Amino acid sequence: MSDDSDQEKTEEPTEKRLRESREKGEVARSRDLSGAIVVLAGVAALMNGGESAFLHARNIFKLGLGYSREALFSDALPGRALHAAMREALDLFAPVALATMLATLAAPLLLGGLNFSAQALQPKFERLDPIKGLGRIFAMRGLVELGKAMLKLIFIGAVLLLLLRHWQNELQATGRGSVTAGIALSIGLLGRAALWFGSMLALIGGIDAIYQKFDHAKTLRMTKQEIKDEMKESEGNPEMKGRIRQVQQAQSRRRMMEELPKADVVVVNPTHFAVALRYDDGRMGAPRVIAKGVDVLAQQIRLVAGSHRIPMVESPPLARALYATTELGREIPAALYVAVAQVLAYVYQLKQAAAQGEAPPAAPTPEVDPDLMGPYRE
């Protein structure tokens, strides 16, 4: 058989592979798309609060240009001016900072969703190896990322250069008019430039998101051998499964035998079947099967029932029907209520006769639908 590395990864990833990938923090992400969302959110906040931004920017200019004679000779002037300017700047940029922070948290929802991985936070010292670092740089993925960065730089730089040339007269006008007009024009130009920048990032981010999703799906693909190995691992070794099944069956039989002394009656077929029933009208809606077996196990049930003086009623059709229709620990089906009621009534009469020293009553012969016996009809 060929090695996994020689096989092509043509198969879609299994649920286990996808789950392990998310646990490692390996999900499709696009930094360009996230960056575009953050920039557009900041632009939206800036343009939405344009008038407020204008007032704060004007106040900052006024703080730097207008002082009284007394203030100029005051030692406290620099501190007061700096404090006031910082407060105005904070008020100016607070909405933008809040919008970008919320966008940073929301951006991952568009691609890959929120995913916290403790494994991704663990330090990986092999990343400090310079040889492996160079290998990652010159690997195909590193070359693709380098090419994308160069294309973004050329594309965005060219567009912004064209915008600067187009807005040349407006930029020059910011220094020719009044301070108020210059501030308003500067904020408008800044908003439009940021909008163009964010739109270009959104275009690049959309293309990159499609590529990242395709590349991540390609990375998770599996070979046919990997799928076979995973199925074998999940199903387990057949011998081990058989051993586990034997242990489980042995434990089940032991618990069954421990419950058997609580039985009210054991319905038997003289040779092959034995089914123990218990009925507590205060806690059960119908009699319940607490032990059942065939051949050797049926013989063991009869021996334990005999040692605990549990009545045994011979009724081959009923024993077969109970064995076929009722799982261990379950209540009997409604179709067997009448037949089992006859047996329980007989057991009650038998105990009463023994207590009073009377002759035992005749054993019942319950009628049972042959279809209820299933494969044990004969």
Strand count, sense and barrel status of the largest sheet are: 4 strands, mixed
Strand content: 5-15%
| Gyration radius, in Å | 42 Å
Count of distinct strands: 4
Chain-averaged pLDDT: 77
Any low-confidence stretches, pLDDT <50, length ≥5? 1-5
The shape, in one word, is elongated
Between the first and last Cα atoms, what is the distance in angstroms?
A: 51 Å
**Helix content range:** 55-70%
- Give, in spatial order, the strands making up the sheet with the most strands: 3-2-1-4
Quaternary state, please? single chain
Helical stretch tally: 15
User: SSE string, helix = H, strand = E?
Assistant: HHHHHHHHHHHHEEEHEHH
* Structural category: mainly alpha
Secondary structure blueprint with pairings:
Blueprint: H1 15-23, H2 31-48, H3 50-65, H4 69-72, H5 77-106, H6 118-121, H7 130-137, H8 140-166, H9 168-173, H10 179-220, H11 224-235, H12 238-259, E1 265-268, E2 273-278, E3 288-294, H13 296-307, E4 312-314, H14 316-325, H15 337-356
Parallel strand pairs: 1-4
Antiparallel strand pairs: 1-2, 2-3
Helix pairs in contact: 2-5, 2-10, 3-5, 3-10, 8-10
Textual characterization of the structure:
It is a single chain. The protein has 378 residues and is mostly helical. Helix content is 63%, strand content 5%. The chain has 15 helices and 4 strands. A 4-stranded mixed beta sheet has the order 3-2-1-4, with helices on both faces. A hairpin with a 4-residue loop joins β1 and β2 (273-278). α2 (31-48) packs antiparallel against α10 and α8 runs antiparallel to α10 (179-220). It is elongated. The two termini are 51 Å apart.
